[in-house]
Amino acid sequence: MVDPTNDTDYHRTDAELEEFLLFSISVAGKTASQIAIALERFFNFADQIIMQQAKTNNVKALMAEKNKYNTPFKAIKRLIEIEELENTIKISSLGQHGKLKKAFTELATVNFDLKTCSIDELETITGIGPKTSRFFILHTRPKQKIAVLDTHILKYIRQYVPNAPKATPSKKRYNELEQWFIKHCATLKVDIAEYDLLIWNRYARK
User: Fold this and answer.
1) What percent of the chain has a predicted confidence (pLDDT) above 90?
2) H or E element, residue 191
3) Cβ(90)–Cβ(97) under 8 Å?
4) Sequence-ordered list of residues with C-beta below 8 angstroms from that of 16, at least 6 positions apart, any chain
5) How far is CA 130 from the centre of its chain?
6) Over the stretch 96-126, which tens digit does the pLDDT of each residue have?
């Protein structure tokens, strides 16, 4: 399960990268701890539904079926085939059913290399904007010079830049504030991903 208080991990497996990207999309505008639990519930329900569709009581056959869909994207592809994706999203209490169904479907079929794909590539997926794409890359790849301008980071920035917005800004303004935050972290001599997490935890707890 994704740990919402410690997002940064540069050694994720392919399956863990898939899970973290699904979390990154699902968590937008939601409570991170609740979405982490809901996403784990989604995978558990997916396993149950896929096993039920196997229509066999043979343990070996069931395990073989389970192993065929042993990564998040493979499981989603199977849910699409048996027309159970939207239902699984709903019963998992992930919310945003229509958006997540479209996003999960696109991700499961697009064949991105999640270790190297670009911000622009990620943003072709429904539900992935500048904040989500950067969140995923910042916390899965070391030494990235990007900033996740969520409400917590923007609140922090407003201490220094009073006219910074409260919500994710337009692309031009986003780029300006992103560069400000990158330079700010360089001045403080702190890692951007570590400082992002420190600020998030500080403001989220308040």
Assistant:
1) 76
2) none
3) yes
4) 9
5) 13
6) 899 999 999 999 999 899 999 999 999 999 9
**Nearest one of 22, 9, 13, 2 to 128, comparing CA atoms:** 22
pLDDT tens string 161-199: 999 999 989 889 999 999 999 999 999 999 999 999 999
**Structural contact between residues 35 and 26, judged by C-beta atoms closer than 8 angstroms:** yes
DSSP string across 55-102: ----HHHHHHHHHHT-SHHHHHHHHHHTT-HHHHHHHTT---HHHHHH
Q: Which residues have a Cβ under 8 Å from the Cβ of 115 and sit 6 or more positions away?
A: 14, 17, 140, 141
**Alpha-carbon separation of residue 178 from 50, 55, 70, 138, 187 (angstroms):** 43, 52, 37, 13, 14
At 144, the amino acid letter reads Q
pLDDT, tens digit, 9 for 90 and up, residues 49-82: 988 887 766 667 667 767 778 899 999 999 999 9
